[in-house]
Every structure is written in structure tokens, then in C-alpha cells.
Design a protein that fits this description.
There is one protein chain. The chain has about 375 residues and is an alpha/beta fold. About 40% of the residues lie in helices and about 15% in strands. The protein is built from 13 helices and 13 strands. The strands form two sheets. A seven-stranded parallel β-sheet has the order 3-2-1-4-5-6-7, sandwiched between helices. The protein has a six-stranded parallel β-sheet with strand order 10-9-8-11-12-13, with helices on both faces. Helix 7 links the parallel strand 8 and strand 9. Helix 1 packs across helix 13 and helix 9 packs across helix 12. The longest helix has 22 residues. It is globular, with a radius of gyration of 20 Å.
């Protein structure tokens, strides 16, 4: 049975308020994309329940808005690292160095649980139980985007990810679709769980809607497929605005917007402002393990037009419109239909917002606290 946001996560009993009192968590997060937003939202929920979190960052240095967001959270301590991430080209020296750094942090901080938002470090000899969360992976990305198996140059990545997953005390994914993909590529993971991502509704208040479509994501990422909006935009009598980076981390070919209007990378509060005004939010993704930006947009009252892929179907059901990611004409037709029929669009937006409000940070935090408690109990029983 696929999990519903209105029901309990499979195998997870929601922890009571205050269940995190005195708990210390060492968590990793990369600073690129939705994992940062997920991590900060979860840290906030955990700290409100009495836990303290040491957040070890990897990838690009934190931006000024990211530091501001982190420093505002009582109970959170950030340890900044700038090592390359495991999915980047030639990352292995950095993966080894960052692993040594994480072991040093754990020895010094003595956390109750190590929560990894990446795979390769799951194999390290941490003293505390290890939770690994599967946010995405190169093999499933390649399969969805390129329509073929990942090439042999990713053999070392495949092996390292598999070792990390199978060494972890527990594995979590944000959707059943993502968990299925991970098990298909790396083998069965007994005891793995689905815990949905979340965003605070208070951070994405709706405002009077204006006649434009909004999209957000890395323009260079073929998975987000924002190039489909470039192909769909000509001839539409309204603007399509796209927020997000145009150049991959570490440099590379810059994506160029010709038919849509680029907004560039935006801090979360500014992006929330655009979402509050947008009539429609479009994410014609080929690959999206959860779709945090769609959740944010739905909370802000946007009607959703999404790529027709299993994960987004799982999360949104009848609360969104779905289009073939490879059919820009169908995308253009759907956008035009919703813009020309405001009552239909508003009804869809209302269904989306109602569904989005079930993905609460309180519920996500309680589910993780329950998992942490199970892991620490099991660790005490073994010792």
C-alpha cells in the first residue's frame, strides 16, 4: 500500500511532543537544492521537541541567507565543510576526507544518532546508530532522465552507495517510489521506511493570484526538465517565470532562457513571495524523488502542473494535473487551459493546498524521533 500523507508512515508510531528531550543528533546536509530546505525544516521540528542538532554541511559554502536561517534556530549548531559531494565528478578524495571529519565530529560531540543525508559515509565506523536518507541517486537519475542504465564510469559510485546503504542501521526515503528505485539498484533493504518530507504552511502564505506561471529549480538539471517550459512558452499569452541557478556547481555550460523569464537563484522567503502570487506552478520533471518545491507552491495556493512520474503521482494523486515530461505541447495546453478557466484552476489549487497541509513538519519530526528512539533502544539492547 502506498503511504498517504493523511495516515501514519508505514511502521512508524508518531512520537509524543517532547520526545526528543535531551537527544543529540549529528546530521549531514549538502547545501545544493532541496536537501538543505529539508534538513533545516527537520532540524527546526526536532529542536522544538527538545532535541539538539549538529548539522555538518558538505558541498558549497553556506550563503548568507542560509547562515541567517540556521543561526535563527535555537538548538542547532552548524559545522561547515566544503568537500565535494559523492555524486560529483571525481569526488573520492573529498569523500574520504569528509568521512574522517565526520568521525572526528562524532567522537567529540557524542551524538545519540548519526543522520546521514547521503550514502557513502554510512559504512564508516560510527559509534552511534546510523540512519541514511535516500533523497536521490545517480543511477535512478540516469535511468529516468537518459532512459538507459548508468554507464560503467559509475561502477565505483554504485559500489560505494550500496556499501553505505547496507551498513546503515536504518534507511528512509521520502516516497515509496524512491525507496523502490533504491532497492532496485542496490538490493533489498529490510526495515527501510518511508517518511514524507514537509514544509511549514506558515512560510508559504497565499496572496491574490496574478496571471503568470512559476517554476523553480536548477535550469541545468535535465531531471527538472525546465527546458520543456522553454519549448512550451512561445505563443502562450502569459509569462512563465523560472527561479533557480543556471550554472552547475563547479562550473559548466550555462543554461540560457529565451522564452521564459529567469529570476535567478532566490532565497527561500523571496521565492515564497513569488509562489504566493503565481496562479500556476509547473514542474514537468522527469525525475523527482519527492518534489519539495511543488509542496511549497501548493501551500502558497498555486495550481500544480507536474511531470507524470510515479513519485509525483504518489504524493499528489488527484490534487495536481500531470503531463508527459517529453511533450511540451501537452504542457502548453494544460497551462493554457488552467489560465483560461479560473474556476477550474482555483478548485485544483484548493485541492493541492489541502493535500499539502497534511505534510507537516510536526509530523515529519515525530516520525524521525520515533525512528531515532527505535535505533537507540536497539543499540542499548545489543550492547
Amino acid at each position: 500500500m502506498k503511504p498517504s500523507p493523511a495516515s501514519r508512515e508505514p511502521g512508524v508510531t508518531l512520537a509524543p511532543s517532547g520526545a526528543g528531550r535531551g537527544l543529540r543528533v549529528l546530521m549531514t546536509a549538502d547545501t545544493v537544492g532541496g536537501v538543505w530546505s529539508y534538513a533545516l525544516e527537520l532540524c527546526r521540528a526536532l529542536c522544538l521537541r527538545g532535541a539538539s542538532v549538529d548539522l555538518a554541511t558538505l558541498g558549497a559554502p553556506l550563503s548568507a541567507p542560509q547562515w541567517e536561517e540556521a543561526r535563527a534556530l535555537a538548538g542547532l549548531t552548524v559545522h561547515e565543510g566544503t568537500w565535494r559531494l559523492e555524486w560529483m565528478d571525481s569526488p573520492w578524495n573529498d569523500v574520504r576526507a569528509s568521512g574522517e571529519w565526520l568521525l572526528e565530529l562524532e567522537a567529540r560531540l557524542a551524538p545519540d544518532v548519526v543522520h546521514l543525508n547521503g550514502y557513502c559515509h554510512g559504512v564508516l565506523p560510527f559509534r552511534a546508530p546510523v540512519l541514511v536518507v535516500a533523497h536521490s541517486c545517480v543511477l535512478s537519475w540516469w535511468e529516468a532522465v537518459k532512459k538507459e542504465a548508468a554507464p560503467s564510469r559509475y561502477a565505483r559510485y554504485r559500489e560505494a552507495v550500496a556499501r553505505g546503504l547496507h551498513a546503515a542501521s536504518r534507511v528512509v526515503a521520502p516516497t515509496r517510489a524512491m525507496l523502490d528505485a533504491i532497492e532496485r539498484h542496490y538490493g533489498a533493504l529490510p526495515g527501510a521506511r518511508v517518511v514524507s518530507n514537509a514544509r511549514s504552511a506558515a512560510s508559504f502564505p497565499p496572496a491574490p493570484k496574478e496571471r503568470f506561471v512559476l517554476a523553480a529549480g536548477r535550469l541545468w538539471d535535465e531531471a527538472k526538465n525546465l527546458s520543456a517550459l522553454e519549448a512550451a512558452a512561445p505563443g502562450l499569452p502569459f509569462l512563465i517565470l523560472v527561479a533557480g541557478a543556471t550554472t552547475p556547481p563547479g562550473g559548466g555550460t550555462q543554461a540560457v532562457a529565451r522564452s521564459t523569464r529567469p529570476l535567478g537563484p532566490l532565497p527561500s522567503p523571496e521565492l515564497a513571495g513569488w509562489m504566493s502570487r503565481a496562479a500556476v506552478y509547473a514542474l514537468p520533471a522527469r525525475y523527482e524523488p519527492f518534489g519539495l518545491s511543488a509542496l511549497e507552491a501548493a501551500l502558497a495556493g498555486c495550481a500544480l502542473v507536474l511531470g507524470d512520474i510515479p513519485s509525483l503521482r504518489e504524493v499528489w494523486g488527484s490534487a495536481a494535473r500531470f503531463v508527459d515530461p517529453e511533450d511540451p505541447r501537452a504542457l502548453a495546453r494544460e497551462l493554457r487551459t488552467l489560465m483560461e478557466h479560473p474556476e477550474e484552476r482555483e478548485a485544483l489549487a484548493a485541492r493541492g493546498r489541502q493535500r499539502a497541509r497534511a505534510f507537516t513538519p510536526q509530523r515529519m519530526g515525530a516520525a524521525y524521533l520515533d525512528l531515532y528512539a527505535r535505533l537507540t533502544r536497539a543499540e542499548r539492547h545489543v550492547s
